Amino acid sequence: MSLPTRKGAAAIDREVSDRPAEPVTLSSSELLQAAVAHRSYLEGRPNGKLFAYKGLALAGRNLSRLQLPRAVLVGADLSSADMAAIILDQADLFGANLSGADLNGACLRRADLRGANLMGAKLRDATFRGADLRPGQLVFWLGGEKRVRDKPTSLVNADLANADFEGADLSQVTLTGANLRGANFRAAALFGANLSGADLSGADFTDARMKGAILDNAEAAGTVFRHADLREAQLRNVATASADFTGCNLMGAVTRPLKQPLPARFEAMLREHVRWITSNGAAGRRLTLEGEALDGLCFEACDLRGAVLKGCSLTKASFRQCELKLADLSGSRLRGADFDGASLLGANLAESDLSDARFTRANLSAIELVDAQGRITGRRWPADLRRATLTGADFRGADLREARLQDTDLSDCNTAGANLTGCALPDATPTLALDKPGRTG
Known about the structure:
It is a single chain. By secondary structure, the chain is largely without helices or strands. The chain has a domain at about 260-440: Pectate Lyase C-like, CATH 2.160.20. Helices cover about 5% and strands about 10% of the residues. The protein has two helices and eight strands; from the N terminus they run H-E-E-H-E-E-E-E-E-E. It has helices at about 30-45, 265-280; strands at about 135-140, 145-150, 290, 310, 365-370, 375-380, 415, 430-435. The strands form four sheets. Strands 1-2 form a two-stranded antiparallel ribbon. Strands 3-4 form a two-stranded parallel sheet. Strands 5-6 form a two-stranded antiparallel ribbon. The longest helix is centred in the first third of the chain and has 16 residues, at about 30-45. Mean pLDDT is about 90; it is low at about 1-15 and about 430-440.
């Protein structure tokens, strides 16, 4: 397939407008007349006219089965419109609002959908071969000053079952929670795309370019990743054993080790925790364990955001590359535990025994709190290590900004290269080892 030449995968190379355009509306008869004139234009017949409207307002309207290839619908409001089986091949839908629209069976081959909003849209059996869904760029005026804002393409919670994205460019697209069962992504570009919590069952990503993609908590039963480029991708809680990774490049990817599975009981609890995360608490069950013996267990590359592991014995447990944002491990025995590369933003480790624990490259900085709508509140929640024992712990390269370390035993810690900006340190800080090699195993 021959695709148009583009800039880099994350390139943003177009503006919508310099000034806000007045919305344009069309009556049903005007819409039909415009579609007929567009067909004449495409066929080179007299009285033909390109279907081109900037800021067209057709929210909730019936556009099903219209044939509008190469139409120009920049910034159009097509939210909740009935567009089933519509033909929009090579159409310009830059920055369009298609949220909640019914596009089942639609054809959008090689369409420009940069910066489009397809959140919650119905796209079953739709065709997007060679389409461009990268981020767009909006230009607007504020107080007489020109501003530029990047606008990502959103397919959050969209229904894309059996859709065809072969050769499409979905770099940096947000597909969280989307239904991608049986979809075709062969040779598609998904650089840095976010597919966390999406259902990828039976989808085909053969030869897809997915460097840096996020697939945490995705369902991958029967998914094909043959010869895909998944370098530096994140696959926390993904059951890789049920997918086909033949010839796949997983260099630097975050994946769970197949040779160290958790006991069946914990795997079941982890599945429920995944449901709890992906549903924002509406389904599943938070992983909650108190006072249990879990020594030596491997939680590597698990997503344990918000999990509760209070007062547990986790000596030499592995939490490498784990997501532990706002997790509660307070009062636990974590001697020799491995948190290399883990994310512990806002985590509670108060009164825990972390002697000889490894936190190399870990992130224990404060987290920005958001409200129920996901809006930033302006409040920051620091990681809590008060009254913890950190004797001999290895914090090389760790991020400890704003961490609470009052009454903490920091004897013989290795903090070479660690960021301690804004930390609440003990009044009398014990000697820190700033340059010794530290533990490597």
